Amino acid sequence: MLPTMKTALTALAATLAGNALAAPQTNPQTNALPPCTNVVIPVTVTANNVVLPATTPPAFNQVSGTYNIAARYCEPANNLHPRRDVLQVLVHGITYTRNYWSGDGDPNILTGPGAPYGGNLYSWVDFASQQGYPTLSIDRLGNGLSDHPDPITVLQIPIHIEVIHQIITKARAGSLPSPANRNFDKIIYAGHSFGSVLGNGLNVKYPTDADATILTGLSATLNYAFLVPWVGNGDFLPAATVNSSKWSTLNTGYLALTNRTAFNQAFYYPTFFDQALQDLDYANRGTVGLGELESGFALPEQVATNYKNPVYVITGQHDATMCPGLDPLAYTKPYQTYDCGPSGTGTLAQTKKLYPNANYQWYAPPASGHCWHFHSEALATFGVAHNWLNWNGF
């Protein structure tokens, strides 16, 4: 069965069960790129970071600083669309940059090295642009072209949340750099993986920042059986030693993944992806700060009790980092794979507990792993996400 057909049938079945939404819309295929501009956003923030090594309960230390956040602002393909004042703020996960949202490339580049892989097939930014949404995809602090502060004492979850809050505040006030310097009426927060963890934390501390939230690659039940060995068995080494030509200036607390098999298992579900894209993805992998990893394990579960706007969790059915169930079909795969469980009672249904007072819904793209944006289901799932936005009035 074709992947897109499977998506439609799965979405329909989940709809009848009351857990997901209807089959996705399709994206108009165009040769035009969304008009994008690279910008730098200065932020001044203060946060209560975790004292590391962490204790139980954790102790906190206040940190402050002014940082430059690199970002890419893309106008909608039709700038007269009524959604032109509904801004999507896109926040990537660990080992990625803002390019994650553009098919692992720069949408300003049409062909050749650095161009989005597969044109618009894996580009959330392109899909959103065709639907009339402007987007702001950021390089998180300590990632990509943004400033790189101390990776242990500064680069932690609490300061990331303050940076994102500052950016959203600027967007609403019309004080982002040109050409994004207009007042945006609505903010849609979309995160992936660690970016979704940050989005959840944002909704806890600042429950009115986002008018709608899409969290991809997230659940309330981390797969510790996979994650703890993955993080702790030496697969992450100082980035400066992994690739000295690229990261020689970074503090040794900035780490890079060195195990290709672990990368494949964490982010992909065989064999529903383009092997050339996976190869490119590994070659382009970025860094992670030690403080990001340790604060993630040290902080308690974040329940967004006061967040009351729509929230949509989209996590691959076979997400190895977020779904602790063993995949019954693993014997057909080159390594152990995982499963989010059945509709209604599985991991994603249980994630509702993070949003007890919100309009919570979820969707599990079939035949997809953690980075479902780079799987065969990507374009169809972009349609599912944007249909959800449309049905919620955005």
From TrEMBL:
Signal sequence, renumbered to the chain: 1-22
InterPro entries: AB_hydrolase_1, AB_hydrolase_fold
Organism domain of life: Eukaryota
Signal recorded as keyword: yes
Domain AB hydrolase-1 per the UniProt entry, residue ranges: 89-380
Pfam family membership, one: Abhydrolase_6
Keywords annotated in UniProt: Signal
Name of the molecule in the record: AB hydrolase-1 domain-containing protein
Lineage, uppermost ranks: Eukaryota, Fungi, Dikarya, Ascomycota, Pezizomycotina
